[in-house]
Amino acid sequence: MHQRTPAGSPATDTMFEFDVAVVGMGYVGLPTSLAFREAGYRVLGVDVSEHRLQTIRDGRADLLEGDRERLGRALEDPGFELTSDAARLSNAAAVVIAVPTPVDEYLVPDLSILRSACATVVENAVSGQLVVLTSTSYVGCTKDMVALPLTARGLLPGLDVHVAFSPERINPGVDDFSQEEVPRVVGGITEACGQRAEVLLAKYVPKVHLVPTAEAAEMTKLLENTFRAVNIALANEFADICGTLNISVMDVIDAADTKPFGFMRFNPGPGVGGHCIPCDPHYLLWQLRRNRMNAPVIEQAMQDIAARPRRVVDRSRKLLSDRDQGLAGARVLLAGVAYKPDVEDVRESPALEIIAGLAAEGATVGYIDPLISRISSKGIELDSVTDPAGFAPDLVIMHTSHAGFDLGWLDAVPTVLDTTYKLPAAPNTIQL
């Protein structure tokens, strides 16, 4: 029997086998568990997928080099374990939930994974535990999916258990900031809950910013990614404006970026992919619709972002038409399909919609990506091309610029549509 822990005080090490259990061993959960381990915590990693767990055990998980080294050390540490047995959650002093929160094809939040994970955590919760939700969702989610179900079980937040929300702030594929360098925001269901979570996080990050409520912490993450979405939409719009006026948008952005205040750089592109920007603002808009409230700036930005891959298809048609060729029967090759450089991830990648759009108009579509060997989406299954010259493309769409991606073969391509705005000027290269 676990003893009741007084409100506001952390559970003692002797009460639990593990200091932290992380539910979800994906792009957020795995690096988070490794950061906790590096800070000296005994860590249990939990995931429903045995395949994913075996990938981690084999050292094949997609990680930054620093985290890959951490994983090697963790796998040799008896204080770091991986399991699919959710019942073992009751052996951890703190449980951190880090699972995906996607949207469906209609841009409606898909809460099924989060509901399942929260229900599992609640089912296995014991007195004295701290539960911290990190997955981005709507305001009030922590209360609805964790605090109230725990209360229904007779475990009162702030007394028997502690419940808080602390949004993840991981930037996949980018090692400019390690987890330990990025401050964590946290808010509790009660004041004592927030303080308990602050103690947990403060051991591995230099700064924890405690807000008064879990709802304030939830809204913080929605603001962060909505801010990015709106500014990306603005950058895309300026790219179109500059193209119409025959101005290099990158010259303009580079110049504006010299201002040391009042400007933050965002670059245009073929669309937005990944787990955050294309999804998170829709959780806010969905909640606002339920409250019959409009957010016109956010709504327009998300509409523009959703339409961006279609613009790539339309621009491709125009470039081929200028050469007296249509999309039907044309051979189009995408260079890179990952949603951002240097990640093995195609979730919400604009490339998937671009490929589907091109194929729907009769084009023969292929792709080359050194990190993505195969894609399967929207009824299309493709393997990465090994020889772009052998594919003989009529048009190449530059979509994702991975570090070390050999692009010398682009010189021999009839036309290159640069949606990254990063390729050097060349007679055959045209920016989106």
UniProtKB/TrEMBL annotation:
Any one GO molecular-function label of the UniProt entry: NAD binding
SUPFAM superfamilies: 6-phosphogluconate dehydrogenase C-terminal domain-like (SSF48179), NAD(P)-binding Rossmann-fold domains (SSF51735), UDP-glucose/GDP-mannose dehydrogenase C-terminal domain (SSF52413)
GO biological process, one term: polysaccharide biosynthetic process
Residue intervals of the UDP-glucose/GDP-mannose dehydrogenase C-terminal domain: 333-425
Alphabetized InterPro entries for the sequence: 6-PGluconate_DH-like_C_sf, NAD(P)-bd_dom_sf, UDP-Glc/GDP-Man, UDP-Glc/GDP-Man_DH_C, UDP-Glc/GDP-Man_DH_C_sf, UDP-Glc/GDP-Man_DH_dimer, UDP-Glc/GDP-Man_DH_N, UDP_ManNAc/GlcNAc_DH
Pfam family, one: UDPG_MGDP_dh_N
Keywords: NAD, Oxidoreductase
This protein's record includes keyword Lipid biosynthesis: no
Protein family per UniProt: Belongs to the UDP-glucose/GDP-mannose dehydrogenase family.
Protein name: Nucleotide sugar dehydrogenase
Organism per entry: Arthrobacter jiangjiafuii
Lineage of the organism: Bacteria, Bacillati, Actinomycetota, Actinomycetes, Micrococcales
